[in-house]
Design a protein that fits this description.
Number of strands: 20
Largest sheet: 6 strands, mixed
Helix content: 40-55%
Structural class: alpha+beta
Number of helices: 21
Distance between the termini: 63 Å
Strand content: 15-25%
Shape: elongated
Oligomer: single chain
């Protein structure tokens, strides 16, 4: 049982109505409290009503307070609120992000610090007093020690206009630790000016009996995330370097989420097989594909998503779902296939639970995706892949130590994709795990090996030069920088770490006059040929050697398309 008792405070005019409601619904009539007021002029004020209930019913301990004009979704998880309050060890105020049509002068507005503690509580602020759009509602959790301060507040503020929760909260945050928790959805403020028909519509919607609302909630949500190539600078993203990366439309991962009675993660028939033609078939698939499909990525993303929301005071509706994925990104060839599934799953979860970039800021989302892979699944990775899959298009990334320390994320800049020349990609049919390609460089970097430190500075310099070349359309210069990037990587990692098949693709491309480098950690190469004829002859030889070859199609996000149309 979550609560020991529930009390309702009303005025003398409405008392009989609530008394009749209580008897009809087996609610204790003694828990309906009449404050004796009959007009606005004789009202006690919400804080005084609260104190009346505490005093006359001898209520002690921690208390939750809610306004009577709030409706909650029938799947609202109130335990999530209580758990967060206990975890924080302070009082709690619920807030939501106002939409553009609402005025902050009609609500209590909160400002939060990095720990989600409320640093300022404005009761219906005037225009310009605060830029915050986080509106508090009368939904609070108070500790016993804060409840004991009510008498002091009422004695200090005898005017009924000051005896409202908004002003009390403004007073309390200066004396006690009060934290904020966001409700992204699942509740509705009814207010004083809602007619019976409107009220009945909201009740139907929030009780789960509205067909239109049920249909909306059951509608599947799908998101797609694209593979990428590290155009320049990789692998310095994991070493406080700089990179430029590009989304490619050839390969992608789709994730779909829809409402379900139980939470179901659906295995992919190819990537998460549970049935085989024979023992020999199982052996062959396991040898080639390994044992780690996409199901673990979905599960780890869900786990981290719930953890993120719980730690940051975001209350999620108690809704179960069915989550499934599909992907055509070749496995283990360094095209960011794992992170593509995580990114698409994150977008689905955010949409399903009505979260926006305000709840998980865009620069933070790559950090979240990396934490899923690195902390939950121990996948060797850097931020580059996650950044390009969140931002999409062509992105310059600066992971310099001072920037990362200050912001907890890098500096990410969209680049113009206009005029990008034709690039090609080749990859192995039967690659090794791309994570092994990193060798001992990470360990050497941690030990401040001078060769590694200097190499990372060179990668960063190549990236800055490539940014200028792209902006000026100097594609021959870009090709030269790509070749330098690979030569430096080869010198740093050594041929043994890079692998014979990878080096074979590099050698073939260079003999055909193509600039060439790794798009990621290994298993594939991409390049820029000087002519169409040279690319055709390159394609033929690579295919004869058993490699897969394809011309690359850059993925241009809508924002880039709009910019180019305007230009």
């Amino acid at each position: 049982q979550i609560f020991s008792e529930v009390y309702l405070v009303t005025n003398a005019n409405k008392y009989k109505h609530y008394e009749r409601w209580a008897t009809a619904n087996e609610f204790p009539v003694d828990n309906i409290i009449n404050d004796g007021s009959t007009t606005s002029e004789t009202r006690l004020g919400s804080v005084a009503d609260f104190e009346l209930a505490l005093r006359t019913r001898h209520i002690t301990g921690d208390v939750m307070v809610l306004a009577g004009d709030m409706l909650f979704n029938y799947k609202f998880d109130i335990m999530q609120v209580i758990k967060y309050c206990r975890a924080k060890g302070g009082d709690l105020a619920i807030y939501y992000e106002m939409d553009a049509s609402e005025s902050s002068s009609t609500r209590g507005i909160v400002e939060l610090d990095a720990s989600h503690r409320i640093s300022k509580f404005w009761e219906k602020p005037s225009l310009g007093e605060t830029s915050s759009r986080l509106a508090s509602v009368v939904f609070y959790c108070f500790r016993q020690q804060s409840v004991e301060l009510l008498g002091n507040y009422l004695q200090e503020f005898p005017d009924v206009n000051d005896r409202v929760f908004g002003k009390f909260m403004g007073w309390l945050v200066d004396r006690e630790d009060v934290y904020g928790m966001k409700l992204p959805g699942g509740f509705q403020l009814i207010g004083q000016h809602v007619g019976l028909s409107d009220y009945e519509k909201w009740v139907a919607a929030y009780s789960g009996h509205n067909p239109d609302e049920l249909q909306r909630l059951k509608r599947p949500i799908s998101h797609r995330s694209y593979a990428r190539i590290g155009l320049i600078g990789n692998p310095s993203d994991g070493f406080h370097g700089k990179t430029i990366s590009m989304s490619i439309a050839n390969f992608w991962a789709d994730v779909t989420i829809e409402s379900s009675d139980k939470l179901v993660l659906v295995p992919h028939p190819l990537n998460d097989p549970t049935e085989f033609g024979s023992l020999a078939d199982l052996h062959g698939i396991s040898r080639k594909e390994g044992y780690l499909g996409g199901l673990r990525l979905l599960q780890a993303t869900c786990k981290k998503f719930y953890q993120y929301c719980s730690e940051r005071g975001i209350a999620l509706a108690k809704r179960n779902f069915r989550l499934e994925y599909d992907t055509n990104i070749p496995r283990q060839v360094g095209l960011a296939g794992s992170s593509a599934i995580v990114v698409a799953a994150l977008r689905c979860l955010m949409a399903f639970f009505n979260l926006s970039d305000a709840d998980m800021p865009r620069p933070v989302q790559p950090n979240f995706v990396l934490s899923v892979e690195l902390e939950e699944l121990f996948i060797t990775a850097g931020l580059q892949d996650r950044v390009i899959q969140i931002y999409e298009g062509l992105v310059y990334m600066d992971f310099s130590k001072d920037i990362m320390t200050k912001n907890q994320h890098g500096n990410y800049v969209d680049l113009d994709m206009k005029g990008i020349p034709q690039l090609w990609l080749a990859y192995q049919n039967d690659p090794s795990d791309s994570g092994k390609i990193h060798s001992d460089v990470k360990l050497r970097w941690a030990k401040h090996d001078s060769d590694v430190l200097e190499a990372m500075k060179e990668f960063a310099a190549y990236t800055d030069q490539a940014r200028d070349a792209i902006s000026e359309g100097r594609w021959t210069s870009l090709a030269g920088l790509m070749d330098k990037n690979f030569a430096l990587r080869r010198r740093l990692y050594g041929d043994a770490a890079l692998g014979n098949a990878n080096l074979r693709m590099i050698d073939i491309a260079q003999r055909h006059g193509s600039a060439v480098k790794f798009p990621g950690s290994g298993g594939a190469v991409f390049g820029l040929c000087p002519t169409e004829e040279s690319m055709d002859s390159l394609r033929i030889e690579l295919q004869l050697e058993g490699f897969v070859f394809c011309p690359l199609t850059p993925y241009i996000p809508e924002r880039h398309q709009e910019q180019q149309q305007q230009q």
